[in-house]
Each structure stands twice: as C-alpha cells, then as structure tokens.
C-alpha cells in the first residue's frame, strides 16, 4: 500500500492543475449543456413572434386583413409612413419588419394579376423575417385562389381567418426518442475532455516522479518486489480513473435531478464512458513513459486533448466537417465515442442492430486503449534495457 498511498499524496502537489482543468471542464460542460439541451417538458408548437409594422398605402381591405391575420402571432406596431423613421426603428431594434403595401395592390389581387410587389424594410439576417415572407406569400396565394373562385376579398379574408383558427394536433412518432438532446447526453458528450486533460496531467506527472533516477534506486533497494510495486501503482491509476468517472456521474445525477437512475440508456452511456476512460488512462501512461519533465506533459496534454476533442466532434459537431476531415477523424477514439453518445441519446428501443453498433464503436475505443498501452510497455522495456546496458 506504500506505492498506492504515495500516488495520492503526490496529487496534493498537482492540486493547482487539478483545479484549473476541473474549472475549465465544468465551465465548458455546464455552459454548452445549458445551451444545447432542449426542454422536453414543452410539447406544444409555438410560432415565432416579432415586432411588425404594416403601412397600407392602398387604403383597402387587404392591409387591415394582413394586420388581423398576422397580428395573432406578432406584435403590430403603429408607425408613420416615413422610411427614414422606420429605418431608425429597425436600427435600434424597436421594429423587426415593416411591410409597405403599395397603391392599387389590392386591385391587382382582385384582377388575379399582381403587377406590383410588396415593399419591405427589415433587420438583416432576422430568421423570423424570412418565415414571415414565406407565410405572406402563401397568404396572398390562397387569397388569390379564393377570389378566382368567385369570392369577394372580404369573404376570402374571413375564410382564411377560419382556416387559421383550426388547430392541428402534433404527436411525437413512436420511433423518436423524446429524451434526445437532453441534459444527460449533452453533458456526457464533454466528459472525454476531463478524462484526457486531467487524466494525462495527473497520471503522467506522478509516473514521471516514480521514474526519476533517485526514486527508482530507492525503490530497487527496498524489500518490496517489482511485481507488487507495479500492481500497487496500477491499482492507484485505476482508482484515480474511477474517481474521475464518479465525479462525472455525480454531476450528471445532479444536473438531471436524479432522472439518470431510471434512464434505460444509462448502461450504454456507462459503457461508452468507461471505454473512453480506459483510452485516456492508456494515453496518460504513454505520456508518463515518454517525457521526463512535467513541462513537456503540459504541452502534450494541450495539443493532444484539444486535437482529439475538436476532430472527434466533441467541441464541434461532426456534421460540420468535410468528408476529408471526417475520414481522418475516424481513426480517433473520440470520434467513435461521440458517434456512440449520439446513438445512445437518440435510442428509442433497444434492438440487436443498436447493440451491435454500440459494441463495435466501443470495441474500437477499447482496442485503441490496448494499442496505446502496448506501445507504452514496449517503450518501458526499451528504456530498461538501455539502463541495464
């Protein structure tokens, strides 16, 4: 137990780095989880709303009909017919969209030949404005069709209001998981950053201490066999890894308000987290055998952890990458971790195809961990031969 206890005593020397990486992870994970998490308690469809002004230069029924039709989902703002004043309101975000109905526009609808275009002033890049334009075009098209069938503009207006008042019931399909994009799946998507950054810094720094010449000589002179020392050190590394996993699970439990304990997806989430943790520990062991100074480890962890997280789709969604980047990212364990996390999040029912998909993706991550660990053992043996020679 001497080696085991020494491992955790050395953590006190690294408490500053542990706090820094821990705060970075929590800030990133909590902020992004809050932004990305959808509110599954809200099942009803809600239309977008904006501040809308309608300037009716035609002085007909159409302008008032537009106000009444779109006023139920938007706030109608009364403005003067002055484009300069309207532009000032748009600039100061007192108005989102101004619709200007030109003269004789209503007559062109009655004749079935729209010869004049509606004018508009809007805030650039406003999504609601684009939606409103599409809805307005559909409204005019329906009105023209009704009037072409013999209705007056007054009757067509009433018919369109009647059609809009009809409610449509939307039900979630059975094959869609209502929990997709919830707080648990979003939070777990950032766990690899903690495993990689903090795992590499702590484990490799402690291994560098144990690999110092003076420390090695003292350990060789002790009565403790080499096998027992290695087992104790390996046990300490595993215990630290399980501590990291426990921290992630506790935070997830708090953020999900305990719902994760009854979530049928948790066994698959846990499998995905465990394989990623094993890879992170193996990478940390490799760093501890490659470097002799903690300064080198700090540079290594910043480059490797950020590269794996960015290219693996943890910080940036995988669908944003080009085909070439995705082809290269497929060789990274974080890529398959993210794929599994997305699949588990969207899981509606457990099927054989789903199990096979998760198993194969986790097998790749586990195989990567074994490969990195094997490389570390080879490096350790080479160093021992050089010392012995």
SSE inventory with pairings:
Elements: H1 2-10, H2 15-36, E1 51-56, H3 61-70, E2 75-76, H4 83-91, E3 97-101, H5 105-111, E4 119-122, H6 127-148, H7 153-165, H8 183-188, H9 191-210, H10 213-221, H11 226-255, H12 266-290, H13 294-311, H14 323-329, H15 333-345, H16 352-388
Helix pairs in contact: 1-11, 2-9, 3-7, 6-7, 9-11, 9-12, 9-13, 11-12, 12-15, 12-16, 15-16
Protein described:
The chain has 389 residues and is mainly α. Helix content is 66%, strand content 4%. The protein has 16 helices and four strands. The longest helix is centred in the last third of the chain and has 37 residues, at 352-388. It is elongated and about 105 Å long. The protein starts with a helix and ends with a helix. The model is unreliable at 40-45 and 172-176 (pLDDT under 50).
Brief summary of the model shown:
This protein is mainly alpha-helical.
Order of helices and strands: HHEHEHEHEHHHHHHHHHHH
Uncertain residue ranges = 40-45, 172-176
The biggest beta sheet reads:
4 strands, mixed
How much is the radius of gyration in Å?
31 Å
Total number of beta strands: 4
Strand content: under 5%
Category by helix and strand content: mainly alpha
List keywords for this structure.
mainly alpha, four-stranded mixed sheet, 66% helix, elongated
């Amino acid at each position: 137990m001497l080696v085991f206890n020494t491992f955790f005593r050395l953590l006190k020397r690294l408490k500053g780095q542990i706090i820094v990486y821990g705060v970075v992870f929590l800030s990133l994970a909590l902020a992004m989880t809050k932004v990305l998490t959808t509110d599954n308690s809200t099942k009803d469809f809600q239309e977008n709303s904006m501040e809308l002004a309608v300037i009716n230069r035609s002085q007909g029924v159409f302008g008032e009909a537009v106000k009444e039709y779109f006023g139920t989902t938007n706030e109608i703002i009364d403005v003067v017919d002055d484009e300069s004043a309207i532009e000032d309101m748009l600039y100061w975000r007192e108005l989102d969209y101004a619709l200007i109905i030109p003269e004789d526009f209503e007559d062109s609808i009655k004749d079935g030949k729209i010869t004049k275009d509606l004018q508009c002033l809007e805030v650039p890049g406003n999504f609601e404005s684009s939606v409103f334009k599409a809805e307005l075009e559909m409204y005019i098209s329906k009105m023209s069709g009704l009037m072409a069938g013999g209705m007056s503009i007054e009757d067509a207006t009433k018919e369109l209001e009647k059609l809009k008042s009809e409610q449509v019931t939307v039900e979630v399909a059975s094959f869609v998981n209502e929990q997709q994009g919830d707080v648990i799946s979003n939070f777990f998507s950032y766990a690899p950053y903690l495993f990689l950054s903090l795992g590499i810094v702590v484990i490799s720094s402690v291994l560098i201490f144990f690999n110092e010449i003076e420390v090695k000589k003292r350990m060789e002179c002790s009565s403790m066999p080499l096998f027992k020392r290695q087992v104790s050190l390996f046990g300490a590394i595993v215990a630290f890894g399980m501590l990291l996993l426990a921290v992630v699970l506790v935070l997830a439990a708090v953020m999900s308000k305990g719902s994760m304990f009854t979530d049928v997806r948790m066994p698959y989430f846990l499998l995905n987290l465990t394989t990623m943790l094993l890879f992170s520990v193996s990478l940390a062991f490799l760093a501890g055998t490659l470097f002799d100074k903690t300064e080198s480890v700090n540079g290594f962890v910043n480059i490797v952890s950020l590269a794996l997280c960015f290219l693996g789709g943890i910080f940036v969604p995988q669908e944003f990458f080009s085909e070439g980047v995705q082809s290269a990212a497929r060789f990274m364990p974080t890529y398959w971790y993210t794929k599994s996390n997305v699949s588990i999040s969207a899981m509606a029912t457990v099927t054989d195809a789903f199990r096979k998909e998760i198993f194969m993706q986790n097998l790749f991550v586990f195989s990567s961990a074994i490969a990195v660990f094997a490389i570390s053992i080879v490096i350790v043996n080479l160093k021992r031969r050089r010392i012995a020679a």
